[in-house]
Specification:
single chain; mainly beta; Elongation Factor Tu (Ef-tu), domain 3; 2 domains; 9-stranded antiparallel beta sheet; 5-stranded antiparallel beta sheet; 3 helices; about 10% helix; about 50% strand
């Protein structure tokens, strides 16, 4: 059991530097994400693009992903895809059958702890009535709000605020062992939501080795 935050990767299905999280090349074969997907789902599709014995595996000891195949191959990333998986450079990975990222992957954070509140109603209405009795109503935020407190190591915090897990769309696993979506009957399930705010960064411990922050997420209603 544990908690983690994963990024959604963006792609329109093309291999360009502008689409910073869409593709890589392994052994001369392009793996191109067909559309936006949570990183676990994206990995499934990208691995299938390469085929054979090729695989991508999370390595907790490195806080990064490992790319491996049955024989030596060259691995080249497009855009910022290398940062998503925990590699410091997009090129130079050649002559081996396995490569593991050398820094914190910006697409996944296995955090120390995640405290969360129940989903809140995020819908609001602004009503303005004028002297001539005309009224104007603006409705916004047809979403549920999810407020969480995230605890991580100092090393993780160094990169977290600049990561793909602190902005845009993310998937939050309250319990990493529960791989089904949140529902009224499965309150421990994962939540796909948009980051509204990350704030209140605080340190704990004599050496400030634990860092925690608050995160507000918005989950659109279907």
């Amino acid at each position: 059991m544990g908690s983690r935050i994963e990024a959604w990767l963006y792609s329109e299905g093309s291999k360009t530097v502008m689409e910073a999280t869409s593709s890589f090349t392994a052994g001369g074969t392009d793996a191109i994400l067909s559309g936006p997907k949570a990183i676990d789902d994206a990995i499934t599709e990208l691995v299938a693009d390469i085929g054979g014995a090729f695989g991508i595996t999370w390595r907790a000891a490195s806080n990064a992903y490992e790319f491996d195949d049955s024989g030596a191959f060259t691995l080249t990333f497009t855009g910022n895809m290398h940062k998503v998986f925990g590699f410091s450079t997009p090129i130079g990975h050649t002559g081996q059958s396995s490569y593991t990222g050398d820094q914190q992957a910006l697409g996944r954070y296995d955090v120390l702890k995640l405290e969360c509140n129940a989903l809140e109603d995020g819908a609001s209405v602004d009503l303005a009535q004028y002297r001539h009795q005309r009224a104007e109503v603006l409705a916004f935020g047809n979403v549920d709000l999810y407020r969480a407190r995230i605890y991580m190591t100092q090393a993780q915090a160094t990169s977290f605020l600049a990561s793909y897990c602190a902005a845009g769309k993310v998937r939050v696993y309250q319990d990493s062992d529960d791989t089904t979506a949140y529902s009224a009957t499965n309150p421990d399930g994962y939540i796909d939501a948009w980051v509204v705010a990350v704030s209140d960064l605080t340190t704990d411990g004599i050496t400030e080795e634990v860092v925690h922050c608050s995160m507000v997420l918005a989950r659109p209603r279907s």
